[in-house]
Write a structure and sequence with these properties.
homodimer; alpha/beta; Rossmann fold; five-stranded parallel sheet; four-stranded antiparallel sheet; elongated; DNA-binding; WH-like_DNA-bd_sf (chains A, B); phosphoprotein (chains A, B)
DNA sequence: CCTCGACAATCAAAATCTTCATCGTCTCTC
DNA sequence: GAGAGACGATGAAGATTTTGATTGTCGAGG
């Protein structure tokens, strides 16, 4: 499997090359849009990892150029923290997946694997809903009854977990392990506190209440019957 | 490979059983010291995961009893957050490794694998040093010139990283990925700030300075020539 | 030798997370 | 249905972390 990395920042570039190399892929690295497009068009790659911010041609121009001749080449693009619109634009232009800097390498590797396994990914649905609550995964943006709601990192992680497993009762231990990456603790109530904070933001001023407590079991998010 | 879990807290116990089961081990679970010791003595297990806090016989008593007849059975014991002395005591009594609650399941699995692979683990050195700086990994305790120094979680993680790779220049990106589990970010100076905080605690009031800045490259911890 | 630009250090404010103690409420038992 | 005990909710303090702006410093090029 051969991967092309288009990334101008040297540190990031070499990190990616090394990491993916060690993961067993053949990796080429170029540091600008022109070379990126040119190389990618050679047809020898299975996947392109594309930074958006590039000197010369930027990421979208490369993507656009590429899609003309190679509609099926998998493209994973990297976007900066706040350039949220970028992601949307990127996907519209035909990228297959995106990743927001900073990200963990494990995350990147997981996506690369997915893309290579199933070829161009049918992008997963980008909005989760429950009643009038909406979570736009792309923009990391949450609204309820049309009202924008700001969440912190943990709150967002927690909400996403709830929504992805809507209707399931999630034990505290499961929540702890997903959101905090730690399990098996008895003497802490971080989960409770986090749920409370989340409730204050998404459930307090609205109806119906979505997050319910199941005594002795955990919490569920669902629209009450 | 067969594992015995001795854990009285039901949630933790079943979580462990399920997790290790899914990882491909045969698992038995008991919830008290008496049964734990009795079962373990049967000789059919390759590893015992032992909680310290137990009704009836506590973890150490089990361990002690066990070591009499089965000096080579691998034992991994679980200790609560602050009961630091427990760990020392545990290792002295012949446990092979320990884990502090709360911990990530991945962590547990890693240790279980290590123990099963190489049998009873030659416990790794438990103190790291550089000049008059000492880090006791078991107690998570840091001293410089004999003076106790309190570190936060991140500070400790950072220091441990530095010490484990003493003399190596660590690029910011590497530090970010190890301590924060995130890479590839340019527009943040968390690493710088963290290094500063650490320096304030371990380097500011002492000689020689251990953490050095290598311009354009990163940071090193070493005793200056 | 001086200046400029890149890189680091520093500082303080703001955001976030964790802990802890207390209070309320549910459930089981008698 | 009253009481006890477990479980969850709540509030607020405290600690930690992150962010952003500012200041300082090194090194290359003129």
């Amino acid at each position: 499997m051969k991967i092309l990395i288009v990334e101008d920042e040297p540190k990031t570039g070499s990190y990616l090359r090394q990491g993916l190399g060690e993961a067993g892929y053949v990796v080429d690295l170029v540091d600008n849009g022109f070379d990126g497009l040119h190389q990618a068009e050679s047809g020898e790659y299975d996947l392109v990892v594309l930074d958006v911010m590039l000197p010369g041609l930027d990421g979208w121009q490369v993507l656009q150029g590429l899609r003309r001749g190679h509609p099926h080449l998998a493209v994973l693009f990297l976007t900066a923290r706040d350039q949220v619109e970028d992601r949307v634009k990127g996907l519209e232009l035909g990228a297959d997946d995106y990743l927001v800097k900073p990200f963990a390498f494990a995350e990147l590797l997981a996506r690369v694997r997915t893309l290579l396994r199933r070829g161009r990914a049918p992008s997963e649905p980008s909005v989760l809903r429950a009643a009038d609550l909406e979570v736009d995964l792309l923009r990391r943006r949450v609204t309820r009854a049309g009202q924008r709601i700001e969440l912190t990192a943990k709150e967002y992680a927690l909400l996403e977990l709830f929504l992805r497993r809507r209707g399931e009762v999630l034990p505290r231990s499961l929540i702890a392990s997903s959101v905090w990456d730690m399990n098996f603790d008895s003497d802490t109530n971080v989960v409770d506190v986090a749920v409370r904070r989340l409730r204050l933001k998404i459930d307090n001023d609205f109806e119906p209440r979505l997050i319910q407590t199941v005594r002795g079991m955990g919490y569920v998010l669902d629209v009450p019957a």
